[in-house]
Amino acid sequence: MEHNHELIEEVLAGIGAKRAGVKFGASKALRIMSERLPELLYRHFDFFAAMLDHDNQILKWNATLTLANLARVDRAGKIEAILDRYLDLISGPNMITAANAIRGAAIIGLAKPHLVRRILLRIMRVERVEYATPECRNVAIGHALRALEQLADLLPDRRVLRLFAARQLGNPRPATSAKARRFLKARKKTA
Predict the structure, then answer these.
(1) Is the N end or the C end of the chain the one with fewer CB atoms within 10 Å?
(2) Residue-range domain boundaries for the chain
(3) Do residues 172 and 138 lie in contact, with contact meaning Cβ atoms separated by under 8 Å?
(4) pLDDT band at 3, cuts 50/70/90?
(5) How far apart are CA 68 and CA 147, in angstroms?
(6) Cα(164)–Cα(151) distance, rounded to whole angstroms?
């Protein structure tokens, strides 16, 4: 076990490397490890939380998803403590950062169902966010619809989710309007 911690420390140190390949490879390796063995990385939660403010977007994206994966083993409530800061990433200005935060928020909601309402209310604000272009917002809304699909059954009252999806039926991005139709069709079956 101690050997694992030494290896993790080395990979964590790799994030500070000057060479992009080393830095991004280390970041990706840690994200993948968080999917498979979150308990080995949980002691480094604060390290990943600090990365939410990192200037390098790729490091921020991997940290965002890593934190979400750590929610499964978070018995100390650390994710709750940073959740507002985490969800603030949805508000832009970077659409890819927002998409990763939305995806991660769904993972957190599945791991911690008591946070689902809070998470979904923040995700649904995406339709009012200004990104670089309106098309970026439409892409982010598509990610939001996917998150709603994953979390909807954890909410007793889904009306607000159906209304959000219904507003997207006319979304100019075909993939996003298709996600809205799929969401509403699936909710009809479960209603």
Answers:
(1) N
(2) 77-190
(3) yes
(4) low
(5) 13
(6) 14
